[in-house]
């Protein structure tokens, strides 16, 4: 049985709940709802839950450290479970992808994302799998305001479909591998059905 840490990035507290930057938390909340899992156990400076799927054990983690310190929580979790960095899947919002798209990526830099920056600083490298949830760029060029802004009502309507698409991608990856999931979904826009 493979064990993975699946870490969704976000900021704790009700103020941030429905912001674009909390796409990782929203993804895990949706997964928990669909699979009837609780992500409420306090450990690794975050909330944890466990999900068994297709012979894999998945430790679901929502760091409660605030985004720019996410790496601390993730490092504690990897060390505790004695897992290599290759068994880490990080779910995060992605400015460089349009809203409606979700893409897997293996390795890379942080691209200015504070959560990824913290993880790479703590782990010493970026060789982990990322599931990137597109939030699009701000039309006004105000990145911080855009990222920390609430998801607008017209986008909220399509959100569960996008998150469901991301969950489907994760399931395919766990059953059939990363390459298969990338080839099936990386060019798809979940808003277009």
What does this structure look like?
The chain has 193 residues and is an alpha/beta fold. It has one domain: Peptidyl-tRNA hydrolase (Rossmann fold, 3-Layer(aba) Sandwich). Helix content is 37%, strand content 23%. A 7-stranded mixed beta sheet has the order 2-3-4-1-5-7-6. The termini are far apart. The model has no long low-confidence stretch (mean pLDDT 95).
Structural class: alpha/beta
CATH topology: Rossmann fold
Relative helix content: 25-40%
Total helical segments = 6
Main sheet specs: 7 strands, mixed
List the domain count as a whole number.
1
The CATH homologous superfamily corresponds to Peptidyl-tRNA hydrolase
Instruction: Report the CATH C-level class.
Output: Alpha Beta
What would the average pLDDT be, to the nearest integer? 95
Q: What does the radius of gyration come to?
A: 15 Å
The number of strands is 7
Contiguous low-pLDDT stretches (5 residues minimum) are none
In the CATH classification, which architecture applies? 3-Layer(aba) Sandwich
SSE succession: EHEEEHEEHEHHH
Residue fraction in strands: 15-25%
Distance between the termini: 33 Å
- Trace the largest sheet across and list its strands: 2-3-4-1-5-7-6
- Gross geometry: globular
Question: How would you summarize what this structure contains?
Answer:
With 193 residues, this protein is an alpha/beta fold. It has 6 helices and 7 strands.
Quickly list its features.
193 residues, alpha/beta, Rossmann fold, seven-stranded mixed β-sheet, 7 strands, 23% strand, globular
């Amino acid at each position: 049985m493979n064990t993975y840490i699946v870490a969704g990035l976000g900021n704790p507290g009700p103020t941030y709940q429905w912001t674009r930057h909390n796409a990782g938390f929203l993804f895990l909340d949706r997964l928990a709802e669909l699979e009837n899992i609780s992500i409420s156990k306090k450990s690794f400076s975050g909330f944890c839950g466990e999900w068994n799927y297709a012979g894999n054990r998945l430790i679901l983690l929502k760091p409660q450290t605030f985004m720019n310190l996410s790496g601390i929580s993730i490092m504690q979790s990897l060390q505790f479970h004695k897992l290599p960095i290759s068994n880490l899947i990080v779910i995060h919002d992605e400015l460089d992808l349009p809203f409606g798209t979700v893409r897997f990526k293996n390795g890379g830099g942080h691209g200015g994302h504070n959560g990824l920056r913290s993880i790479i600083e703590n782990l010493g490298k970026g060789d982990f799998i990322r599931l990137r949830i597109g939030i699009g760029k701000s039309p006004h060029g105000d990145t911080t305001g855009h990222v920390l802004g609430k998801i607008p009502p017209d986008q909220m309507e399509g959100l569960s479909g996008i998150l469901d698409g991301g969950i489907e991608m994760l399931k395919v990856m766990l059953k059939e591998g990363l390459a298969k999931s990338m080839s099936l979904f990386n060019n798809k826009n979940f808003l277009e059905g």
